[in-house]
Amino acid sequence: MIREIYNDSIGLNVQYFLLRILSYSPKLLLLNKLIFKLTLKQIKQQHYDAINIIGQHPWVAIIHDALKQENLIHTFHEVGSHQTGEKTTPLLDKVISDASKVILPSKATYNCFNQIPNSSKAIMTMIPIGKLETLLLYEKDVILPVSVNISKPTFLFYGYIKPYKGLDLLVEAYKRLENECEFFNLIIAGGGYDENTYFFKTKKNCVVINRFLTNEEMMKLNRLSVAILLPYKSASQSGIVLTSFMYGKPVIATKVGALVETVCNEINGLLVEPGDAEGFAFAMLRLVKDIALLKKLQRGAFRFGINDQFDWNRIAEKTIEFYFK
């Protein structure tokens, strides 16, 4: 993706510096620390007006310690871990202790950060993320092993497959739609493991692509589908939503995490209570049977990020203001 973004910004006053870690193997720990030391020294010599670090990988702590005297800003898309229930990490505690600037991309992550002891010491703001338009750089036609008749409404569940993504709920929802399965298709796509994928492999109107997808394949799957399914048990914010809205694809999601901040019920998608298989099945059936509703939600998905809080122009203004606050 770096190559595509670089080519797209030729002629702009933008410079790129790529720091590539060879491996996170403990065997290369000393070498990686040396690479970090030299790189961070070069960064400090540039005297940047602002430095934004994204993520909470443990190694970010090394960057933080080296640059905390600079105008350093952290962006955390997740606080702790919604998968393990972990509320904080040594890095987050360090950021709070040093009264650093922190950007949280959703109300859900903002509230999680606020629950960490002494979090008020940090300088916090909530700035959302807009549609992931850079993925349009991967608009290429690719061949996918999709054997179903895509002239029928096709639902898509995609991304890294883990138990918290709620495939077990989708199984129960599908069972309630057995008598309607001739009217729709379902594609499950992504790397990872969940034993519930075996259920869908036995269904004629379902396709399971259980491997990691290229960006080109993700874009192609979005084009093939009429709506995206997020039956999650927990979530922070989701890049799936921000990608799918770019294609005008409405989302059926459970009311968890920040999904309720981007998916607006009856406007750009349908929201269902967590664990409600009956409600999830009914939401899918509505989009199969009610073409007018589907078109309304598609228009709402297309309008996401236009003159609202998710508009990239407004996001840029808020970001610059916070950088130099």
Any overview of this molecule?
This protein is of the alpha/beta class. Helix content is 37%, strand content 13%.
CATH class bucket of the largest domain: Alpha Beta
**Low-pLDDT sequence parts:** none
Proportion in β-strands: 5-15%
Largest pleated sheet: 6 strands, parallel
Please name the fourth-level CATH homologous superfamily of the largest domain. Answer: Glycogen Phosphorylase B
Write out the strand line-up for the largest beta sheet, numbering strands in chain order.
7-6-5-8-9-10
* Secondary-structure arrangement, i.e. CATH architecture of the largest domain: 3-Layer(aba) Sandwich
- Can you give the mean pLDDT? 91
How many separate domains make up the residues?
Answer: 2
Write the element-wise H/E pattern from the N-terminal end onward.
HHEHEHEHEEHEHEHEHEHEHHH
| Distance between the amino and carboxyl termini | 31 Å
Record field, number of beta strands: 10
Work out the radius of gyration: 21 Å
Q: Shape, please?
A: globular
Helix content: 25-40%
The number of helical segments is 13
Q: What name is given to the CATH topology of the largest domain? A: Rossmann fold
Strand-pairing-aware structural class:
alpha/beta
